[in-house]
Amino acid sequence: MGFLYILWQLIAMVQGILAYGTAYRLTKNGGDNGVALFGWFFLMGLASMVPGLGIYLWLKYKEE
Asked: What is the value of pTM for the model shown?
């Protein structure tokens, strides 16, 4: 059980780093200001808690 928790924490940490890049990319496409960046970073941070979702969103918005 401890191994799964550590694995989940590692995935969440990597996705958290990717969430910042995704939030920045989405901010540049939309309302280029600090409030929009904070909002996108908050949403991407929540998505990074779900294993796989943060990586999926990063790959999806990487091409834009």
From this structure: 0.74
